[in-house]
Amino acid sequence: MNAIKRKVLSKALIIFSTTWVASTLADLEFYGEACIIDEAAQLSEPDAVIALREQKMLKLVVFASDEMQLSPVLKSDQSETNSLGEMLTTSMMTRLLIGYPNITKISLVQNYRSHPSLVRMPSYAFYADDLIAARSIDEWSTDTKLHASIRQVFLDKIPYGKEHLERDNRQLFFNVNSLPECEPGDTSYCNRGGIAAIVKFIGMLLEAGVDASEISVISAY
Amino acid sequence: MTMDQGKRRGLFELRHLILEQNLEIFSPDMRRHINESIAHLGKSLFYNTELNREQRNFLEASLVNGAVSLEGLPGTGKTLTLGYLITLLAIYRRKVIGTAHSSGAVAVLTSAVTKLVKNQAVIHKSQPEKARVFDDILDGIVRVYSPNVRQTPSRLLTGPTFLCCWSMSQTTAFHVAFMGTSKNTRATKTSRIEHGPRNHHAFSRAF
Predict the structure, then answer these.
(1) Helix, strand, or coil here: B61?
(2) Taking CA atoms, what residue in B is nearest to A97?
(3) Rounded Cα–Cα distance for residues B155 and B163 (Å)
(4) I need a labelling partner for A9 at 20 to 30 A (CA). Which of A35, A142, A194, B80 fits?
(5) Contact B101 A11 (CB under 8 A)
(6) Do B76 and A108 touch (CB under 8 A)?
(7) Alpha helix locations (H) across chain B?
(8) Torsion of CA B2, A95, A53, B114, to 10 degrees
(9) B81-130: pLDDT as tens digits
(10) Do B179 and A4 touch (CB under 8 A)?
């Protein structure tokens, strides 16, 4: 098996793998000249070190991350009390910036992915207004007719103020005051009130003429 | 993670090649090897208008430093920029490891690079020798999965398969069929191998 792996890797130019698997690459005689680590904020220090283990040809290491996003997850009931817990939940990125502040650091702040009104909320809440929308409102096409019909349906059924349903506002918050059904152990698996609200919202969007393939529903668990 | 001076040499060479297109610093042998059109290819990718100033600063910093940190708030094009860097290094046949903690993040990075390389191959379609550079890169992209079966895509996992390498390109798709012992894997992947003489050629080249 390892012989076949070696053969494949000997022809390879770019290897993609998780850091855990990357630690085996040196054993398979693949020596990279550059190691690019994405989502470095999710890495604990040992995770990053194993990826670079015995990579003797390495000339460039790049850490890319956002410290405000998910940090290392440690599944241990002792992580609160054991001092190792704190070390292992501190990301590689944070450790690097403390231990080696001279590292060349580039920051990107222009958001290309979202409408300006969607950028505004996370920018204010998490990034001290650093996040800038790179594309102006004019670049986002709005179907006026569809917007008018969504606005009409929403105004009829939910007591949102008119100002919340303006054309350039792309986010609405809706609080559902129903109790989740808990399993023993305090984990909530189901909230029927929430589901009912989502079903109603989807019904309203369909009624307003939104294409079903354009609607997505996401949940944290 | 400091790099010693000797190891920086390779990056300085790359910088001269990409930013300044200065072939003087290379030995005559090496100069013959680096076709000038390929030197131009790197430069055109580097000055691509899709990148903004900070993103280009990052590429430049990567070519002169041993370790670089890229911080990016959500949606600012971190992965895209990394994709450009990886492609840039690959044009000059530098071996690169792209890695992340979770396999989901690795998948995102892989698809960003694959998409970028494919796009470049299409852009340079009219000039075969340039398009070939990108085809070769595509052949060299390998995604390595952990032997831990839970992390491998489910469609490749029916039956006792020991699949660990999965190449993105068509030419090396046979590796998968070769290694997978499951009926399902064979059925889906071998069918691709049967098309086209290119794959047979690759087969003889690799083994």
Answers:
(1) helix
(2) B69
(3) 12
(4) B80
(5) no
(6) yes
(7) 5-18, 28-33, 36-46, 53-64, 78-91, 103-123, 128-139, 174-179, 183-193, 197-206
(8) -90
(9) 999 999 988 888 888 999 998 888 888 999 999 999 999 989 888 888 88
(10) yes
